[in-house]
Amino acid sequence: MKQIILAIGAHPDDIDIGCSGTVAKFVKEGADAFYLVLTDGSKGSEDAKIPNRELIKIRQAEQQEAADLMGVKQVFFLDFVDGELENTPALRKQIVKIIRQIKPTTVICWDPTLFYDADRMFINHPDHRKSGEATMDCVYPFARNARTFPELLDEGLEPHVVEELLIMSFGKANYFVDISETIDKKLKALACHKSQFNDIKKFTEMIRGMNKMAGQKAKPKLKFAEGFIRITLRKPN
Ligand SMILES: [Zn+2]
């Protein structure tokens, strides 16, 4: 069966940071890939003078350019406000709609349990947690449950069972994807997000280092890897 991937992030650039090496590898192996960006990205600048509408446009264009590089079939942009994402029925309905529309075998999302990482001196963005939580709720149970959002059935959007959930994870990963052949492509995709980084070289080197470290955790070791917590799901009996 053809692998269909849906990677879901909160902001333009999330997917490129967390899993685009994996997406590129799977696409190379014949998968169809789709991105879903939940917020408008309107807080992603320290320059308070850029109008929201302009920043949203710039960031969507950057994300589209990065996705095109990876051979992604389509990027869906929702317009939930950056920094205000909540796991609401309205958000879940939009995610369920897209899951039922493209019928992914694999969904990729952020880790909803990651608040901070004291080892890496890092506090996670609340939108990342909320996007992970909403995505997980949609993968199970809502996208597969006919009685959730029954109005979607009238649009021909039938329940869909996702087979595999990959949760992007730095600290708790139990599943490593070898991205040694796609890391250069990933760093190129990251460089598309010009509005986000003052020193793109420094940032891409940091990501390269993280993916190298993930590769060291894999068994057997890999040159470069992206780490996930992998959950496979059974079809209903
Ligand atoms: Zn983000």
TrEMBL record:
This is PIG-L family deacetylase. One of its GO terms (molecular function) is hydrolase activity, acting on carbon-nitrogen (but not peptide) bonds, in linear amides. It holds the Pfam family PIG-L. Gene3D superfamilies: LmbE-like (3.40.50.10320). InterPro entries: GlcNAc_PI_deacetylase-related (IPR003737), LmbE-like_dom_sf (IPR024078). It comes from Candidatus Daviesbacteria bacterium RIFCSPHIGHO2_01_FULL_41_23.
